Amino acid sequence: MSEDPKVRKNRSPNHPSLPLETAVEKTKLLFEKYHRQPAPLMNACTTIGYKTIYSTSNQAIAALKSYGLVDTTGKGDNRRVVVTEVGQRIAKDAPDRDQLLKEAALAPPIHKEVVEFYNGELPHDDILRDYLLWERPEGARFNEDAVDGFISRLRDTMKYAKCGKHDKNNNENEDGATPPAPDNGINLDDSPTEIKVGSIVQWTSQGVHQFPHPLPIVRIDEHNGERFAYFEGKGHAPMSQLSLSTETTAKPPVELNLLTPSSQIPPPQQTEFKGPVVRFPLAGGTNEVEIRLKKPVSKKDFDRITQLLALSEDSLVADETDAPAP
User: Fold this and answer.
1) Would you state the torsion angle of the CA atoms of residues 216, 218, 223, 228, taken in this order, to the nearest 10 degrees?
2) What ranges does the record give for the region Disordered, renumbered to this chain (predicted)?
């Protein structure tokens, strides 16, 4: 059966998967190790924090390239990555670094197009989101899975490069004064870069609050170029979707369904399972992995599954001192 074209998602325009500040930090790592010498792709990925050549590491290299910080030669996994002169001057804090950062911020075509469309002043997120989802030409629109992350990274990039009026939500009155924000417990003016361990935050996805009340962050980790905040009970959320709360004392952590104690989970109904099943043994047959799906998944959902498995490493991997002897 063919896919219904009415529900088919658009492929978003090419855009950097990293904000400029993160891209500059990774460029510095490359320059400190290889200077202006071409590095094999695998070595470059390892240097900037990735264990393998995978979709996320490729996207990170592509982001550095889109900002003009690195260049690549060759094809596929045989590519080599080299820091450009612009990347070197930014990494070495050259006198023209500020100007080069502004140029790098607008180097990705989608960045330049959006910023120029709004004459250098990005509008409120709601307006920008509608433009990216609905008002751009057919075939050049974003899909809902990517648009919020793009807006967040674009704002962070414009702020870091000090390009135009990047950090206003266009909520000023005619006299230039900013009206008081509604008392909803969330400080919308705080930048995500100010969020840290101990911050009390709200998680908002697709415009909907995911927590009944703000929660404190107990840990922050980076995985495949994206930062995640962890909350008591091992729940986690992307840092790009968090907002600082004005509350100074957090309420008890909410118990998400996925964290419900096993003793409270009702036994699954025994139904015939017809979806794909993958099984393979581990550790000489003393352990086994089994993955069950209701139906085959897309490549995008498969990538999400692998990322979720990687994020579950702390729960799945035993400490060396606790690991059973072979």
Assistant:
1) 0
2) 165-186
Q: Which residue has the tokens 């101990």?
A: 198
Check whether residue 154 and residue 196 sit in a common domain.
Answer: no
CATH code where residue 220 lies: 2.30.30
The answer for residues whose C-beta is within 8 angstroms of residue 323's C-beta and 6 or more apart is none
Q: CATH number, domain at 73?
A: 1.10.10
For 193, other C-beta atoms within 10 Å of its C-beta total: 13
* Single-letter amino acid code for the residue at 55: S
User: Is residue 271 situated within a structural domain?
Assistant: no
Instruction: Give the full edge-to-edge strand order of the sheet including 235-238.
Output: 219-223, 226-231, 235-238
Q: Is residue 260 part of a domain?
A: no
What is the span of the domain harbouring residue 55? 20-161
